[in-house]
Amino acid sequence: MRKLCTAGLVTLILCVALAAAQKARQETAETRGFRCHTGQRLSDRPDSARIYVAFSIPYDNLTFVRSNEVGFASRFEATFLIFDKDDNLAAERSIDMELTTDSFKETNSRLLNAIRTEEFFVIPGEYDLSVVITDRETKRKRRWEGEITAAFMDSLLAVSDLYWQNEDSLHSELGMPRVIESFSNRDDSARAGIDLISSSTAPLDLSWTITGEDNQPVMSLKQQFTPTGQIQHFDYVVAIKELPVQKYSLTFEALGGGRREARSLTFSVSIPGVPASVTDITLAIRQVKYIATAEENRRLRSAGVLDREQLFREFWKRRDPTPNTPQNELMDEYYFRVQYADERYSTHRPGWETDRGRIYIMYGEPTDIERHPFESGSRPYEIWFYHNLNRRFVFVDQTGFGDYNLAGPEWGY
To answer: What mean pLDDT is predicted for residues 145-171?
Structure first.
């Protein structure tokens, strides 16, 4: 029978398992890095709806080759496909793209992204969308698939979807939607946009509201304007630097002429260099208890608000397997497991605090799992095998509500 792993041994197990875990999830990681966002804007064509598809892919997921003219270059094709629900091709577009940089370090960046937004006019209805990125050097393809409903416009009051706006090297057109889901708490501000049209001659009341995870408003703005009968664009500048690290919802509402339209989008404020899933530094500190020493736990939990982030960074810096690179693979892997445990094993407790979640975070994906949910004469139980570590763990659901607890000490065989 073996005792619980010490913090140092758990960290070692994480490091040893890191390469295998990354390789097993390589395709998942690349798909996760390749982000797309869709939405509807207002159309000036009475018989057509105007939709947009925006994508963002990190430089690290592209192939760069040395070029005598520009330093390093990445060439790829972006193909946009839109199908109606009868599987008829409604729109198609292919674009050749090239990115260049003088810095080899930037070719491996996960912070720099290739970004593109394309707009299409379609008949109102429901559509399936596909975006395919084909690397010119390796011929490797990455695919994103999604859905969108292109709605009819109400002449009395119609608004577009909410979208973020920013400047980048490939698009500088003001008001073009971007793929943005998270902001750094080092950012000063961000600009959200929306389009509106109304045939009413009466003034409309507009409101912008940002709510936090507790659903309480933290920022708001109210304004009134008189419609012109033409498509009008409205901006709202969000003071990111005033928002604590967490998840938020931004809501726009237009009210008047007997009509009400509301749109919302979610975003998060995160710490640069830390996984985007970490939106609560206090919670993130609690979650390192499986690999932190007793002294590290004490210092982290007793730290004041101003010192907490610095101590958190130092904690992970000491465990960075590649300290000369901007990415901390061990931290990324650890919080990936925390997020996975929350999604998979949550009961009346968060998944990362359950026994199955703890073992998953410490040891990763089991080699094999035996599940016995309906065996006669016993409670539901599972056996997790880690053949590479010569370990197994037995979890029993004593209550019948899916809360599996570790049966005795951690077992080896």
So the answer is: 82
Report the distance separating Cα 144 and Cα 404, nearest Å: 36
For 108, half-sphere exposure in the C-beta direction (CA atoms, 13 angstrom radius) is 6
pTM of this structure: 0.68
Residues with Cβ within 8 Å of residue 72, at least 6 apart in sequence: 64, 65, 66, 100, 101, 102, 103, 104, 106, 107
Question: What are residue 219's DSSP bridge partners?
Answer: 210
Residue 4 token pair? 């619980």
* Lookup: tokens for 46: 């009475």
| Tokens standing for residue 413 | 């065989």
Least confident of 44-48, 59-63, 187-191, 278-282: 278-282
**Interval 171-192: pLDDT, tens:** 444 467 888 778 888 889 999 9
Distance CA 211, CA 195 (A): 22
Q: How far is CA 357 from CA 124, 209, 233, 237, 401, in A?
A: 45, 36, 47, 40, 16
Q: Can you say whether residue 300 is alpha, beta or left, with left for phi > 0 and alpha for psi between -120 and 50 degrees?
A: alpha
State the Cα–Cα distance between residues 246 and 234, nearest whole angstrom: 26
* Residue in the block written with tokens 């966002």: 37
Domains and CATH numbers, the chain: 7-25+272-412 (no CATH), 34-153 (2.60.40.10), 155-270 (2.60.40.10)
| Least confident among 117-131, 142-156, 229-243, 323-337 | 323-337
On whether the CB atoms of residues 256 and 224 are closer than 8 A, the answer is: no
Distance separating alpha carbons of residues 56 and 33, to the nearest angstrom:
8
Q: In sequence order, what are the residues at sequence separation of 6 or more whose Cβ sits closer than 8 angstroms to the Cβ of residue 32?
A: none
